[in-house]
Amino acid sequence: MRRKLVAGNWKMNGTSSELDEIGKFRDAAESSSCDVVVCPPFTLLHRMSLQTRETAIETGGQNCHHLEAGAQTGEISARMLADAGATYCIVGHSERRHGLGETNDLVRRKAEASVSAGLVTILCVGETEDERLEGLTDEVVGAQISECVPKSADPENFVVAYEPVWAIGTGRTADGSQIREAHAFIRAECSNILGTGPADELAILYGGSVNPGNAAEIFAIENVDGGLVGGASLKGDDFAAIIRTYRD
Ligand code: PEP
């Protein structure tokens, strides 16, 4: 039975007062059959971790540095995230790949650092709209998988999120057949690295404009094991509704 996971990515949003949103989805997390994680900005991580300690909500970082410590002004290591209470870390988000020039090689090193710090690592992959229109989706996503999934990955410490770049924050979602094809392809590519058994157990999330109105339909697609949710995770009631998709 594969893990099901609903992960919220707050991006560069949220100050102290937004911590109140947690109260709106705490019960949903408790009563649903999926794991729930929120990745707030670094500044809220420790406080959120304390606030969610006795709940079914986990916390995670949105990024980490690939080194453990050192002269890296402004950076935060995976070990520091764990020390702040995080149990998850996102790596390779498209806003970092495309906005900050993160390469597959750098993303793999971050993934290795995150796994070795004991964090469940959510690797984001996905094609741009131009790449899809040029028929390059499999090539791009295949390279992201083969070059970013570390040998140390296993279904306990690793999750892949398929996030078509053109669907992130746009209100556009990939259609059912695009999601089904991409997720099956990702699982097959992961089996080349991890072996068929572990790849079958690996959770693969969909991300890209998931909201309370489309979550049930998307999460019911074959090989979709939950979602990575940006905008809708900022509103506690909406995030609760998405989590409740996995009500027992
Ligand atoms: C994301 O941040 O990974 C994301 C999918 O954002 P949104 O849900 O807003 O499209």
Keywords for this structure?
alpha/beta, eight-stranded parallel β-barrel, 8 strands, 40% helix, binds phosphoenolpyruvate
Description:
The chain is α/β, with parallel strands linked by helices and 248 residues long. The protein has helices spanning 22-31, 42-51, 78-83, 94-99, 104-116, 129-133, 137-148, 176-194, 196-201, 215-219, 236-243, and strands spanning 5-9, 35-39, 57-61, 88-91, 120-125, 158-162, 203-207, 226-229. An 8-stranded parallel β-barrel has the order 1-2-3-4-5-6-7-8, surrounded by 6 helices. Helix 7 runs parallel beside helix 8. It is globular and about 45 Å long. Bound molecules: phosphoenolpyruvate. Phosphoenolpyruvate (PEP) is lined by residues 9, 11, 163, 168-169, 207-210, 228-232.
Set out the fold topology.
Blueprint: E1 5-9, H1 22-31, E2 35-39, H2 42-51, E3 57-61, H3 78-83, E4 88-91, H4 94-99, H5 104-116, E5 120-125, H6 129-133, H7 137-148, E6 158-162, H8 176-194, H9 196-201, E7 203-207, H10 215-219, E8 226-229, H11 236-243
Parallel strand pairs: 1-2, 1-8, 2-3, 3-4, 4-5, 5-6, 6-7, 7-8
Helix pairs in contact: 1-11, 5-7, 7-8
Phosphoenolpyruvate binds at residues 9, 11, 163, 168-169, 207-210, 228-232.
